[in-house]
Amino acid sequence: MAFKSPRLKKVTALLLASAAIGGVAILAPQDARLPFTAPANAATLAPEQGFADLVEKVSPAVVSVIVSMKDDATSNDAMPGLDQIPEPFRRFFAPDGQVPRGKHTPQMAQGSGFFISADGYLVTNNHVVENAEKVTVRFDNGDEVQGKVVGTDKKTDLALVKIDRDKPVPYVNLSHKDARVGDWVVAVGNPFGLGGTVTAGIVSARGRDIGAGPYDDFIQIDASVNRGNSGGPAFDLDGNVIGVNTAIFSPSGGNVGIAFAIPASTVEKVVASLKEDGKVERGWLGVQIQPVTEGIAQGLGLEGDHGALVAKVLDDSPAAKTGLKVGDAIVSLNGEPVKDARDLVRRIGSMPPNQKVDLQVWRKGETKDITLELGTQPDDVKVASADTGDNGSATSGKAAPALGLSLADGQSFGTDGVVITEVDPDGQAADSGLQPGNIILQAGGKDVRSVADVDQAVNEARKLKRKAVLLLVAPEQGGNPRFIALPLKAA
Fold first, then answer.
1. 3-state SS, residue 162
2. What is the pTM assigned to this prediction?
3. Is the pLDDT of residue 314 over 70?
4. C-beta of residue 233 within 8 angstroms of C-beta of residue 188
5. pLDDT tens-digit readout, 45-61
Protein backbone atom coordinates (compact mmCIF):
# COMPACT_ATOMS: atom_id res chain seq x y z
CA MET A 1 0.00 0.00 0.00
CA ALA A 2 1.45 3.36 -0.98
CA PHE A 3 2.14 5.74 1.87
CA LYS A 4 2.95 9.38 1.76
CA SER A 5 5.28 10.30 4.55
CA PRO A 6 3.74 12.85 6.93
CA ARG A 7 5.12 16.34 6.84
CA LEU A 8 7.52 16.86 9.71
CA LYS A 9 7.59 20.29 11.30
CA LYS A 10 10.93 21.79 12.19
CA VAL A 11 11.26 22.53 15.87
CA THR A 12 13.75 25.17 16.91
CA ALA A 13 15.04 24.88 20.46
CA LEU A 14 16.03 28.05 22.29
CA LEU A 15 19.03 27.27 24.51
CA LEU A 16 19.66 29.59 27.44
CA ALA A 17 23.14 29.29 28.94
CA SER A 18 25.30 30.92 31.55
CA ALA A 19 29.00 30.35 31.96
CA ALA A 20 31.57 31.55 34.47
CA ILE A 21 34.49 33.20 32.66
CA GLY A 22 37.03 34.90 34.89
CA GLY A 23 34.47 34.95 37.69
CA VAL A 24 31.90 36.79 35.54
CA ALA A 25 28.58 35.12 34.74
CA ILE A 26 27.55 35.53 31.11
CA LEU A 27 23.76 35.35 30.90
CA ALA A 28 21.29 35.19 28.03
CA PRO A 29 19.43 38.46 27.47
CA GLN A 30 16.68 38.99 30.04
CA ASP A 31 13.89 39.06 27.46
CA ALA A 32 15.06 35.70 26.06
CA ARG A 33 14.50 33.82 29.31
CA LEU A 34 11.60 31.43 29.58
CA PRO A 35 9.89 31.95 32.96
CA PHE A 36 9.42 28.69 34.83
CA THR A 37 8.35 27.99 38.38
CA ALA A 38 8.92 24.48 39.67
CA PRO A 39 5.60 22.85 40.68
CA ALA A 40 5.05 21.64 44.22
CA ASN A 41 5.33 18.02 43.04
CA ALA A 42 8.55 18.64 41.13
CA ALA A 43 10.11 15.54 42.64
CA THR A 44 7.65 13.36 40.72
CA LEU A 45 8.62 14.82 37.36
CA ALA A 46 11.70 12.60 37.23
CA PRO A 47 11.41 9.75 39.75
CA GLU A 48 14.74 9.42 41.54
CA GLN A 49 14.06 5.77 42.33
CA GLY A 50 12.87 4.92 38.83
CA PHE A 51 9.53 3.28 38.11
CA ALA A 52 9.98 0.11 40.16
CA ASP A 53 7.30 0.87 42.76
CA LEU A 54 4.80 1.76 40.05
CA VAL A 55 5.57 -1.36 38.02
CA GLU A 56 5.29 -3.58 41.08
CA LYS A 57 1.88 -2.09 41.78
CA VAL A 58 0.34 -2.44 38.31
CA SER A 59 2.04 -5.43 36.68
CA PRO A 60 -0.17 -8.14 38.24
CA ALA A 61 -3.17 -6.65 36.41
CA VAL A 62 -1.47 -6.85 33.00
CA VAL A 63 -1.74 -10.19 31.20
CA SER A 64 -0.85 -11.96 27.98
CA VAL A 65 -3.74 -12.73 25.63
CA ILE A 66 -3.10 -15.91 23.66
CA VAL A 67 -5.41 -16.41 20.70
CA SER A 68 -6.19 -19.58 18.79
CA MET A 69 -7.71 -18.62 15.44
CA LYS A 70 -9.47 -20.31 12.59
CA ASP A 71 -7.38 -22.27 10.09
CA ASP A 72 -7.85 -19.63 7.38
CA ALA A 73 -7.24 -16.64 9.64
CA THR A 74 -4.13 -14.55 9.15
CA SER A 75 -1.36 -14.64 11.76
CA ASN A 76 1.42 -12.52 10.34
CA ASP A 77 2.19 -8.90 9.55
CA ALA A 78 -1.09 -8.58 7.62
CA MET A 79 -3.04 -8.12 10.85
CA PRO A 80 -6.83 -8.13 10.94
CA GLY A 81 -7.96 -4.64 10.10
CA LEU A 82 -4.52 -3.66 8.77
CA ASP A 83 -5.96 -3.06 5.32
CA GLN A 84 -7.79 -0.07 6.78
CA ILE A 85 -4.72 1.59 8.24
CA PRO A 86 -2.04 3.10 6.01
CA GLU A 87 1.51 1.77 6.06
CA PRO A 88 3.76 2.31 7.89
CA PHE A 89 1.24 2.76 10.70
CA ARG A 90 0.84 -0.80 12.00
CA ARG A 91 -1.61 -2.49 14.28
CA PHE A 92 0.33 -5.27 15.81
CA PHE A 93 0.35 -8.49 17.80
CA ALA A 94 2.97 -11.20 17.87
CA PRO A 95 2.61 -14.29 15.68
CA ASP A 96 3.56 -17.37 17.66
CA GLY A 97 6.20 -18.82 15.36
CA GLN A 98 7.11 -21.59 17.78
CA VAL A 99 4.04 -23.70 17.04
CA PRO A 100 4.56 -26.15 14.12
CA ARG A 101 1.58 -25.91 11.80
CA GLY A 102 0.22 -28.94 10.06
CA LYS A 103 -2.73 -28.89 7.75
CA HIS A 104 -5.22 -28.57 10.59
CA THR A 105 -3.06 -26.83 13.20
CA PRO A 106 -4.83 -23.67 14.40
CA GLN A 107 -3.12 -20.32 13.97
CA MET A 108 -1.75 -18.89 17.21
CA ALA A 109 -0.98 -15.30 18.16
CA GLN A 110 -0.29 -13.29 21.30
CA GLY A 111 -1.22 -9.80 22.44
CA SER A 112 -1.66 -8.00 25.74
CA GLY A 113 -4.51 -6.89 27.96
CA PHE A 114 -5.33 -5.64 31.44
CA PHE A 115 -8.06 -6.16 34.03
CA ILE A 116 -10.36 -3.26 34.90
CA SER A 117 -12.40 -4.98 37.62
CA ALA A 118 -11.94 -7.61 40.32
CA ASP A 119 -14.58 -9.86 38.73
CA GLY A 120 -12.44 -10.51 35.66
CA TYR A 121 -13.28 -8.00 32.92
CA LEU A 122 -10.30 -7.52 30.64
CA VAL A 123 -9.60 -4.85 27.99
CA THR A 124 -7.59 -5.55 24.84
CA ASN A 125 -7.65 -4.64 21.15
CA ASN A 126 -10.27 -5.90 18.73
CA HIS A 127 -7.53 -6.90 16.28
CA VAL A 128 -6.00 -9.16 18.95
CA VAL A 129 -9.13 -11.28 19.45
CA GLU A 130 -10.74 -10.88 16.02
CA ASN A 131 -11.31 -14.32 14.41
CA ALA A 132 -10.49 -16.00 17.75
CA GLU A 133 -11.87 -19.48 18.37
CA LYS A 134 -10.22 -19.70 21.77
CA VAL A 135 -8.81 -17.04 24.09
CA THR A 136 -6.35 -17.93 26.87
CA VAL A 137 -5.35 -15.37 29.49
CA ARG A 138 -1.90 -15.85 31.06
CA PHE A 139 -1.21 -14.05 34.34
CA ASP A 140 2.01 -12.43 35.43
CA ASN A 141 2.78 -15.48 37.61
CA GLY A 142 2.25 -17.95 34.74
CA ASP A 143 -1.28 -19.08 35.65
CA GLU A 144 -3.62 -19.55 32.68
CA VAL A 145 -7.41 -19.36 32.42
CA GLN A 146 -9.84 -19.37 29.50
CA GLY A 147 -11.50 -16.13 28.49
CA LYS A 148 -14.71 -15.28 26.65
CA VAL A 149 -15.09 -12.34 24.29
CA VAL A 150 -17.96 -10.21 25.64
CA GLY A 151 -17.99 -7.73 22.78
CA THR A 152 -15.84 -5.89 20.26
CA ASP A 153 -15.84 -2.51 18.56
CA LYS A 154 -13.95 -2.47 15.28
CA LYS A 155 -14.27 1.28 14.79
CA THR A 156 -12.17 2.03 17.90
CA ASP A 157 -10.27 -1.30 17.85
CA LEU A 158 -11.33 -2.22 21.39
CA ALA A 159 -12.55 -5.51 22.85
CA LEU A 160 -13.83 -6.69 26.23
CA VAL A 161 -12.99 -10.18 27.49
CA LYS A 162 -14.31 -11.88 30.66
CA ILE A 163 -12.75 -14.65 32.72
CA ASP A 164 -14.35 -16.63 35.55
CA ARG A 165 -12.17 -17.24 38.60
CA ASP A 166 -12.95 -18.28 42.14
CA LYS A 167 -11.06 -15.31 43.60
CA PRO A 168 -10.76 -11.61 42.76
CA VAL A 169 -8.20 -10.65 40.16
CA PRO A 170 -5.81 -7.69 40.43
CA TYR A 171 -7.02 -4.74 38.38
CA VAL A 172 -6.15 -1.16 37.49
CA ASN A 173 -8.22 1.97 37.01
CA LEU A 174 -8.71 4.14 33.94
CA SER A 175 -7.45 7.69 34.32
CA HIS A 176 -10.03 10.45 34.49
CA LYS A 177 -7.49 13.14 33.69
CA ASP A 178 -6.39 14.10 30.19
CA ALA A 179 -2.81 13.16 29.47
CA ARG A 180 -0.59 16.17 28.86
CA VAL A 181 2.20 16.38 26.35
CA GLY A 182 5.41 15.80 28.28
CA ASP A 183 3.87 13.59 30.99
CA TRP A 184 5.75 10.43 31.93
CA VAL A 185 4.19 7.22 30.64
CA VAL A 186 4.99 3.58 31.41
CA ALA A 187 3.94 0.85 28.95
CA VAL A 188 3.50 -2.74 30.16
CA GLY A 189 2.81 -5.65 27.82
CA ASN A 190 3.93 -8.83 26.13
CA PRO A 191 6.18 -7.89 23.19
CA PHE A 192 7.23 -10.78 20.96
CA GLY A 193 5.68 -13.24 23.41
CA LEU A 194 8.48 -12.64 25.93
CA GLY A 195 6.12 -12.13 28.88
CA GLY A 196 5.64 -9.03 31.00
CA THR A 197 7.94 -6.26 29.76
CA VAL A 198 8.10 -2.62 30.87
CA THR A 199 9.21 0.46 28.93
CA ALA A 200 8.98 4.15 29.78
CA GLY A 201 8.79 7.43 27.92
CA ILE A 202 6.67 10.53 27.64
CA VAL A 203 3.45 11.63 25.98
CA SER A 204 4.59 13.09 22.66
CA ALA A 205 1.30 14.42 21.28
CA ARG A 206 -2.48 14.17 21.53
CA GLY A 207 -5.35 14.02 19.06
CA ARG A 208 -3.45 12.10 16.38
CA ASP A 209 -5.35 10.92 13.29
CA ILE A 210 -3.49 8.07 11.54
CA GLY A 211 -6.24 6.95 9.19
CA ALA A 212 -7.18 3.90 11.25
CA GLY A 213 -10.86 4.77 11.44
CA PRO A 214 -13.44 7.55 11.70
CA TYR A 215 -12.90 8.04 15.43
CA ASP A 216 -9.11 8.42 15.49
CA ASP A 217 -8.04 10.44 18.51
CA PHE A 218 -4.80 8.76 19.55
CA ILE A 219 -2.30 9.67 22.24
CA GLN A 220 1.22 9.49 20.82
CA ILE A 221 3.93 8.16 23.14
CA ASP A 222 7.64 7.46 22.69
CA ALA A 223 7.91 4.46 25.04
CA SER A 224 9.17 1.39 23.16
CA VAL A 225 6.14 -0.52 21.94
CA ASN A 226 6.41 -3.54 19.66
CA ARG A 227 4.46 -6.50 18.35
CA GLY A 228 2.65 -8.20 21.17
CA ASN A 229 2.07 -4.93 23.04
CA SER A 230 -1.31 -4.57 21.32
CA GLY A 231 -4.04 -4.15 23.91
CA GLY A 232 -1.57 -3.42 26.70
CA PRO A 233 -1.90 -0.37 28.95
CA ALA A 234 0.06 2.85 29.12
CA PHE A 235 0.18 4.16 32.71
CA ASP A 236 0.68 7.56 34.30
CA LEU A 237 2.80 7.95 37.43
CA ASP A 238 -0.27 7.41 39.62
CA GLY A 239 -0.71 3.92 38.17
CA ASN A 240 -3.84 4.81 36.20
CA VAL A 241 -4.29 3.78 32.57
CA ILE A 242 -4.11 6.74 30.20
CA GLY A 243 -4.48 4.64 27.05
CA VAL A 244 -4.47 1.27 25.28
CA ASN A 245 -1.45 0.68 23.03
CA THR A 246 -2.76 -0.05 19.55
CA ALA A 247 -0.49 1.03 16.70
CA ILE A 248 3.05 2.09 15.91
CA PHE A 249 4.69 4.17 13.22
CA SER A 250 7.24 1.78 11.79
CA PRO A 251 8.83 2.05 8.35
CA SER A 252 10.92 -1.03 9.17
CA GLY A 253 8.51 -3.02 11.34
CA GLY A 254 10.44 -2.34 14.55
CA ASN A 255 10.06 0.32 17.19
CA VAL A 256 11.19 3.84 16.28
CA GLY A 257 9.74 5.64 19.30
CA ILE A 258 6.35 6.57 17.85
CA ALA A 259 3.42 4.60 19.27
CA PHE A 260 -0.28 5.33 19.51
CA ALA A 261 -2.70 4.61 22.35
CA ILE A 262 -6.49 4.88 22.53
CA PRO A 263 -7.32 7.48 25.24
CA ALA A 264 -8.81 6.28 28.52
CA SER A 265 -11.86 8.50 28.00
CA THR A 266 -12.71 6.61 24.81
CA VAL A 267 -11.98 3.24 26.45
CA GLU A 268 -14.32 4.01 29.34
CA LYS A 269 -17.29 4.82 27.10
CA VAL A 270 -16.76 1.90 24.71
CA VAL A 271 -16.20 -0.65 27.48
CA ALA A 272 -19.37 0.45 29.28
CA SER A 273 -21.38 -0.20 26.09
CA LEU A 274 -19.67 -3.54 25.42
CA LYS A 275 -20.32 -4.68 28.97
CA GLU A 276 -24.01 -3.78 28.78
CA ASP A 277 -24.89 -4.71 25.19
CA GLY A 278 -21.89 -6.53 23.69
CA LYS A 279 -21.66 -3.79 21.06
CA VAL A 280 -21.50 -0.03 20.70
CA GLU A 281 -24.50 1.87 19.37
CA ARG A 282 -23.70 5.31 18.00
CA GLY A 283 -25.73 8.27 16.93
CA TRP A 284 -26.22 8.72 13.19
CA LEU A 285 -27.08 11.69 10.99
CA GLY A 286 -27.23 9.82 7.71
CA VAL A 287 -24.97 12.02 5.60
CA GLN A 288 -21.68 11.70 3.80
CA ILE A 289 -19.46 14.65 4.55
CA GLN A 290 -16.13 16.15 3.63
CA PRO A 291 -13.93 18.94 5.01
CA VAL A 292 -14.54 22.57 4.16
CA THR A 293 -11.26 23.62 2.56
CA GLU A 294 -10.27 27.21 1.88
CA GLY A 295 -11.33 26.83 -1.75
CA ILE A 296 -14.69 25.29 -0.84
CA ALA A 297 -15.31 28.07 1.70
CA GLN A 298 -14.72 30.60 -1.08
CA GLY A 299 -17.15 28.74 -3.32
CA LEU A 300 -19.78 28.76 -0.58
CA GLY A 301 -19.21 32.37 0.38
CA LEU A 302 -18.41 31.14 3.89
CA GLU A 303 -15.91 33.07 5.96
CA GLY A 304 -13.23 30.71 7.28
CA ASP A 305 -12.44 27.09 6.37
CA HIS A 306 -14.37 25.32 9.12
CA GLY A 307 -17.35 23.00 9.32
CA ALA A 308 -18.38 19.82 7.50
CA LEU A 309 -19.84 19.89 3.99
CA VAL A 310 -22.73 17.55 3.18
CA ALA A 311 -21.91 15.67 -0.04
CA LYS A 312 -24.78 13.18 0.14
CA VAL A 313 -27.94 12.71 2.19
CA LEU A 314 -28.91 9.06 2.63
CA ASP A 315 -32.50 8.01 2.00
CA ASP A 316 -34.78 7.60 5.05
CA SER A 317 -32.08 8.96 7.35
CA PRO A 318 -32.60 11.51 10.16
CA ALA A 319 -30.94 14.12 7.95
CA ALA A 320 -33.31 13.42 5.04
CA LYS A 321 -36.39 13.54 7.27
CA THR A 322 -35.47 16.94 8.70
CA GLY A 323 -34.50 18.70 5.49
CA LEU A 324 -30.70 18.66 5.58
CA LYS A 325 -29.54 19.19 2.00
CA VAL A 326 -26.54 18.42 -0.18
CA GLY A 327 -24.32 21.50 -0.13
CA ASP A 328 -25.15 22.45 3.45
CA ALA A 329 -22.08 23.22 5.55
CA ILE A 330 -22.67 22.13 9.13
CA VAL A 331 -20.88 24.80 11.16
CA SER A 332 -22.25 24.25 14.67
CA LEU A 333 -23.46 21.31 16.79
CA ASN A 334 -25.41 22.04 19.98
CA GLY A 335 -24.07 25.57 20.04
CA GLU A 336 -20.40 24.55 19.71
CA PRO A 337 -18.47 25.27 16.49
CA VAL A 338 -17.66 22.31 14.22
CA LYS A 339 -13.95 22.42 13.41
CA ASP A 340 -14.01 20.02 10.47
CA ALA A 341 -15.61 16.81 9.16
CA ARG A 342 -13.61 14.62 11.53
CA ASP A 343 -14.73 16.69 14.51
CA LEU A 344 -18.40 16.26 13.54
CA VAL A 345 -18.02 12.50 13.01
CA ARG A 346 -16.44 12.01 16.42
CA ARG A 347 -18.97 14.16 18.28
CA ILE A 348 -22.03 12.58 16.65
CA GLY A 349 -20.52 9.12 17.17
CA SER A 350 -20.09 9.79 20.88
CA MET A 351 -23.82 10.47 21.29
CA PRO A 352 -26.48 7.78 21.79
CA PRO A 353 -29.23 7.10 19.26
CA ASN A 354 -32.50 9.00 19.72
CA GLN A 355 -30.76 12.04 21.19
CA LYS A 356 -31.94 15.39 19.85
CA VAL A 357 -29.25 17.69 18.48
CA ASP A 358 -29.26 21.27 17.23
CA LEU A 359 -27.38 21.96 14.02
CA GLN A 360 -26.53 25.27 12.43
CA VAL A 361 -25.87 25.07 8.71
CA TRP A 362 -24.63 27.51 6.09
CA ARG A 363 -26.96 27.34 3.11
CA LYS A 364 -26.93 29.65 0.09
CA GLY A 365 -25.27 32.51 1.90
CA GLU A 366 -27.13 32.42 5.20
CA THR A 367 -27.36 30.36 8.37
CA LYS A 368 -30.23 28.01 9.14
CA ASP A 369 -31.04 26.17 12.37
CA ILE A 370 -32.11 22.52 12.23
CA THR A 371 -33.12 20.24 15.12
CA LEU A 372 -33.19 16.50 14.58
CA GLU A 373 -33.22 13.21 16.46
CA LEU A 374 -30.23 10.97 15.84
CA GLY A 375 -30.76 7.51 14.43
CA THR A 376 -28.73 4.36 15.09
CA GLN A 377 -25.60 4.02 13.00
CA PRO A 378 -25.68 0.90 10.80
CA ASP A 379 -22.71 -1.45 11.19
CA ASP A 380 -21.49 -0.94 7.64
CA VAL A 381 -22.14 2.79 7.31
CA LYS A 382 -19.53 5.06 5.75
CA VAL A 383 -19.57 8.19 7.86
CA ALA A 384 -17.63 10.33 5.42
CA SER A 385 -16.66 10.16 1.80
CA ALA A 386 -14.21 11.98 -0.40
CA ASP A 387 -13.56 9.30 -2.99
CA THR A 388 -12.57 9.95 -6.58
CA GLY A 389 -12.82 7.74 -9.57
CA ASP A 390 -12.96 7.45 -13.33
CA ASN A 391 -15.22 5.35 -15.50
CA GLY A 392 -12.86 5.70 -18.44
CA SER A 393 -15.30 7.20 -20.95
CA ALA A 394 -14.28 10.18 -23.02
CA THR A 395 -15.76 11.94 -25.98
CA SER A 396 -15.91 15.41 -27.38
CA GLY A 397 -18.18 17.96 -25.75
CA LYS A 398 -18.85 21.65 -25.30
CA ALA A 399 -15.97 23.66 -23.91
CA ALA A 400 -16.14 25.31 -20.51
CA PRO A 401 -12.95 27.41 -20.67
CA ALA A 402 -13.57 29.11 -17.33
CA LEU A 403 -13.17 25.69 -15.70
CA GLY A 404 -10.61 24.07 -17.98
CA LEU A 405 -13.15 21.39 -18.93
CA SER A 406 -15.12 20.09 -21.90
CA LEU A 407 -18.65 19.05 -20.95
CA ALA A 408 -21.63 17.25 -22.41
CA ASP A 409 -25.27 17.02 -21.34
CA GLY A 410 -25.83 13.90 -19.26
CA GLN A 411 -28.80 12.88 -21.40
CA SER A 412 -26.37 11.94 -24.16
CA PHE A 413 -24.90 9.35 -21.82
CA GLY A 414 -28.18 8.20 -20.27
CA THR A 415 -27.41 9.84 -16.92
CA ASP A 416 -28.38 12.85 -14.86
CA GLY A 417 -26.13 15.88 -14.56
CA VAL A 418 -23.36 16.98 -16.91
CA VAL A 419 -20.56 14.66 -17.99
CA ILE A 420 -16.93 15.78 -18.14
CA THR A 421 -15.54 14.69 -21.49
CA GLU A 422 -12.11 16.34 -21.52
CA VAL A 423 -9.85 17.91 -18.88
CA ASP A 424 -7.11 20.44 -19.57
CA PRO A 425 -4.04 18.53 -18.29
CA ASP A 426 -2.33 21.79 -17.29
CA GLY A 427 -5.36 23.34 -15.62
CA GLN A 428 -6.78 23.61 -12.11
CA ALA A 429 -9.45 21.01 -12.90
CA ALA A 430 -6.79 18.35 -13.44
CA ASP A 431 -5.01 19.43 -10.25
CA SER A 432 -8.31 18.99 -8.40
CA GLY A 433 -8.53 15.37 -9.53
CA LEU A 434 -11.29 15.76 -12.12
CA GLN A 435 -11.19 13.21 -14.93
CA PRO A 436 -13.12 12.42 -18.11
CA GLY A 437 -16.22 10.45 -17.23
CA ASN A 438 -16.86 12.26 -13.95
CA ILE A 439 -20.39 13.61 -13.59
CA ILE A 440 -21.20 17.12 -12.35
CA LEU A 441 -24.44 16.93 -10.34
CA GLN A 442 -24.47 20.45 -8.92
CA ALA A 443 -22.76 23.74 -9.68
CA GLY A 444 -22.99 26.75 -7.41
CA GLY A 445 -25.40 24.95 -5.11
CA LYS A 446 -27.95 24.15 -7.84
CA ASP A 447 -28.72 20.92 -9.68
CA VAL A 448 -27.46 20.92 -13.27
CA ARG A 449 -28.94 19.08 -16.24
CA SER A 450 -27.13 20.80 -19.09
CA VAL A 451 -23.89 22.55 -19.94
CA ALA A 452 -25.86 25.82 -19.96
CA ASP A 453 -26.68 25.26 -16.27
CA VAL A 454 -22.97 25.00 -15.48
CA ASP A 455 -22.22 28.17 -17.46
CA GLN A 456 -24.95 29.99 -15.54
CA ALA A 457 -23.48 28.88 -12.22
CA VAL A 458 -20.05 30.19 -13.28
CA ASN A 459 -21.54 33.57 -14.25
CA GLU A 460 -23.40 33.84 -10.94
CA ALA A 461 -20.22 33.04 -9.00
CA ARG A 462 -18.44 35.82 -10.85
CA LYS A 463 -21.23 38.29 -10.11
CA LEU A 464 -20.85 37.44 -6.42
CA LYS A 465 -17.09 38.04 -6.82
CA ARG A 466 -16.22 34.52 -5.71
CA LYS A 467 -12.83 33.11 -6.60
CA ALA A 468 -14.17 29.60 -7.17
CA VAL A 469 -17.30 27.77 -8.17
CA LEU A 470 -18.43 24.82 -6.09
CA LEU A 471 -19.10 21.60 -8.02
CA LEU A 472 -20.68 18.40 -6.72
CA VAL A 473 -19.03 15.63 -8.70
CA ALA A 474 -19.60 11.87 -8.83
CA PRO A 475 -16.78 9.66 -10.15
CA GLU A 476 -19.33 7.73 -12.21
CA GLN A 477 -23.05 7.07 -12.38
CA GLY A 478 -24.22 5.99 -8.93
CA GLY A 479 -20.82 6.72 -7.36
CA ASN A 480 -20.34 8.62 -4.10
CA PRO A 481 -20.17 12.36 -4.88
CA ARG A 482 -17.80 14.91 -3.41
CA PHE A 483 -17.54 18.69 -3.58
CA ILE A 484 -14.71 20.39 -5.43
CA ALA A 485 -14.00 24.11 -5.33
CA LEU A 486 -12.71 24.89 -8.80
CA PRO A 487 -10.90 28.24 -9.18
CA LEU A 488 -12.33 30.42 -11.93
CA LYS A 489 -10.17 31.49 -14.86
CA ALA A 490 -10.24 35.10 -15.90
CA ALA A 491 -13.20 35.95 -18.12
1. strand
2. 0.66
3. yes
4. yes
5. 556 678 999 999 999 99
